Amino acid sequence: MKNKFLIIPGENALEKVNNCDFLFPLKGFCVGMNKTFSLEEIPDDSFVYINRLLDCHSIKLLGNLMPLFIKKVKGVVFEDIGVLEVLKEVDKKFITIYYGTHSLCSSYTVNSFLEEVDTCILANDITYDEIKIILNKAKKEIGLLVYGHLPYMYSRRNLLSNYAENFNLEKRKQRLIKEPISKKEFLVVENEFGTVLYDPFEYDGRVFLNEDNISYLLIDLNFLKTDSISKWFNDFVSGQRLDKPSKGFLEQKTIYRLPPKGEEK
What we know:
Elements: E1 4-8, E2 20-25, E3 46-50, H1 56-64, H2 66-72, E4 73-78, H3 82-88, E5 95-98, H4 107-114, E6 119-120, H5 128-137, E7 142-148, E8 151-155, H6 159-166, E9 174-178, E10 185-191, E11 194-198, E12 202-204, E13 214-220, H7 229-237, E14 245-246
């Protein structure tokens, strides 16, 4: 493969995978993850993932980690731009990758962020044609998610605990729920920092494996158990069928506005 991959390993054993770096969700700074890692647990020269929306207290905690951060980390994938401000305060050049899960949906937005960071990862709320347009107009190489469970919503509230309390259910940190009107299922994951709702099906973005103008292709194994990441990866890039594949919004536009009353939907 000509493109570079970032793999979130989940709970799987780490092993060498050609042309890939592991992306470690940082403990205390992530939501929606089955497994997170402290700085002490990750190998040197690693990529770390920070997907929480941070408050003043957590920004300060991140700043306190910088002495060890400098020693262990070579690149950071992040959602809160406050992370970028913390990184600017230290005397080291990190690879900075902005992943605004739902915000990077236009070439204008992408190119604006590319003035501040090394690269971006596009949101997966847009179609194949829209992604192609952005790839062609991007000032620098940008990244894409090509496997994982698409995140639909993130809240800093403990929605799953409140749901269990309201319906007198056993409290869990992860639960599959069904929306009663559309009958659509959601995989809901909660920790002390908030709740993320995911598509329960595996997003398949392999149509982009050989695209030009790509910096990184992101693979999220957060909810997948495999005996060998390397074997799974080789099967994936060679085209082996997924158990429960989904194209996400590649062939269907996101509904972002309802029509006025009386008009056809």
